[in-house]
UniProtKB/TrEMBL annotation:
InterPro entries given in the database record: ABC_transporter_permease, MetI-like, MetI-like_sf
Family listed: Belongs to the binding-protein-dependent transport system permease family.
PROSITE patterns on file: ABC_TM1 (PS50928)
Protein keywords: Cell membrane, Membrane, Transmembrane, Transmembrane helix, Transport
Subcellular location: Cell membrane
Protein name: Xylobiose ABC transporter membrane protein
Main location: membrane
One GO CC term, this protein: plasma membrane
Pfam families associated with the record: BPD_transp_1
Classification of source organism: Bacteria, Bacillati, Actinomycetota, Actinomycetes, Kitasatosporales
Domain ABC transmembrane type-1: 83-293
Length: 309
C-alpha cells in the first residue's frame, strides 16, 4: 500500500534530476582553464619535443639533428645514473613523507585545543620558498661551521655532502621537512570529512583508537593517499633547486638527478637540444609512474557517491 508522501518524494527527485541536468555548466566554463593549459603546458611541451631533434646553443637558429640527441642519451652513463637517482630519491620521499603526513594529518584533525596553534607553527615551511629552505639547511649542515662540526660523535667527519649516502639522506630529509606539511594539510581535510557516525558505531562495538585508525581512518583516506602520492612522485622527479643549492650534483655526479642534469646540459653546456630530450624523458617517466600508481591502487575504478558539476 502506497502513501500519499511517496509520489511527492518521487516528484522531488525527478525535479532535482532535471534541474541538475539543466543547470550543468557548458564548455564555456572550462574554456579559460583549457586555454591556460594549452598555452602554458601543451604548447611549451610541443616546442621542447621539437627542440629535442635539433642542435641549438641558444643563439641563432636551431639545426635539425634527427635522432642524434636521443642516441647520445642512450649511451650517456651520467644520464642513466641520473634516472636511477631520481627514482630512488622520489621513492624514499614517498616512503618517508606518506606515513608522517597521515599521522600528523589525523592528529591535526582532532579536537582543536592547542592543536590549531601547533599545526600553524608546523605549516611554516609551506610559506618559505625551496631556495630559502635549501640555503637554511646548507648553512645548518655546513661541515665547518654547522651542527655536524659540533656533533662529530653523531655525524662522523661532519661532511654530510661529501658522501653519496649521506648526501642523498640530506636531500630526502630537506624535502620531507618542506613538503610534509603540505600533504599533512591534505590528510587533515580528508580526515575531517570522514563521517563521525563510523567512529561512534566502532566505539559501540568496543573498537579502540588503534583499531579505528586501521579499520576506518586508513580505508577512508585511500583516495587521498593516492592523490598525495602522485603529487609526491611528480614533485620528486622534478626537484631541481634543492639539489642545485645543497649538493650541486656532488660529490662528483653522485646526486646528479635528471632535472639537475637537464639544467647542466642546457644552461651550462649550452646544449638545448640534449636538455630538451632529457626533459621529455622526465615527462614520460613521471606519467608512467603516475599511471602505474593509479592502476595498482585501483584508483581508476573508484567512483564518487556525489557527481561533480
Amino acid at each position: 500500500m502506497t502513501t500519499s508522501a511517496e509520489p511527492r518524494v518521487a516528484r522531488r527527485r525527478s525535479i532535482r534530476r532535471s534541474g541538475a541536468a539543466v543547470a550543468r555548466p557548458g564548455f564555456a566554463w572550462a574554456a579559460p582553464a583549457t586555454l591556460f593549459f594549452l598555452l602554458f603546458a601543451v604548447v611549451p611541451l610541443v616546442l621542447v619535443a621539437v627542440l629535442s631533434f635539433t642542435n641549438w646553443d641558444g643563439l641563432g637558429s636551431p639545426q635539425y639533428a634527427g635522432l642524434d640527441n636521443w642516441k647520445a642519451l642512450i649511451h650517456d652513463h651520467v644520464m642513466i645514473q641520473s634516472l636511477w637517482l631520481s627514482v630512488l630519491i622520489t621513492v624514499l620521499g614517498v616512503v618517508v613523507q606518506t606515513p608522517l603526513s597521515i599521522l600528523l594529518g589525523v592528529w591535526a584533525a582532532g579536537k582543536p585545543r592547542n592543536r590549531a596553534i601547533l599545526s600553524a607553527i608546523y605549516f611554516i615551511p609551506l610559506l618559505l620558498s625551496a631556495t630559502a629552505i635549501s640555503i637554511l639547511w646548507r648553512a645548518l649542515l655546513d661541515p665547518n661551521f654547522g651542527v655536524p662540526s659540533q656533533a662529530k660523535w653523531l655525524f662522523g667527519d661532519g661532511n654530510l655532502f661529501g658522501h653519496q649516502t649521506s648526501a642523498i639522506g640530506v636531500l630526502v630529509f630537506v624535502g620531507a621537512w618542506q613538503y610534509t606539511p603540505f600533504h599533512t594539510l591534505i590528510y587533515q581535510g580528508a580526515t575531517r570529512a570522514i563521517p563521525p557516525v563510523l567512529y561512534q558505531a566502532a566505539e559501540i562495538d568496543g573498537a579502540g583508537r588503534i583499531r579505528q585508525f586501521f579499520s576506518i581512518t586508513l580505508p577512508q583516506l585511500r583516495t587521498t593517499m593516492i592523490t598525495s602520492m602522485i603529487l609526491m612522485v611528480v614533485g620528486g622527479l622534478t626537484t631541481f633547486d634543492t639539489v642545485l643549492i645543497l649538493t650541486q650534483g656532488g660529490p662528483g655526479t653522485d646526486t646528479t638527478i635528471s632535472a639537475y642534469y637537464m639544467y647542466q646540459q642546457a644552461f651550462k653546456s649550452f646544449d638545448f637540444g640534449g636538455g630538451s630530450a632529457i626533459a621529455l624523458v622526465l615527462v614520460v617517466i613521471a606519467t608512467i609512474i603516475s599511471l602505474i600508481v593509479v592502476k595498482v591502487s585501483g584508483y581508476d575504478k573508484m567512483r564518487s557517491s556525489t557527481e561533480g558539476l
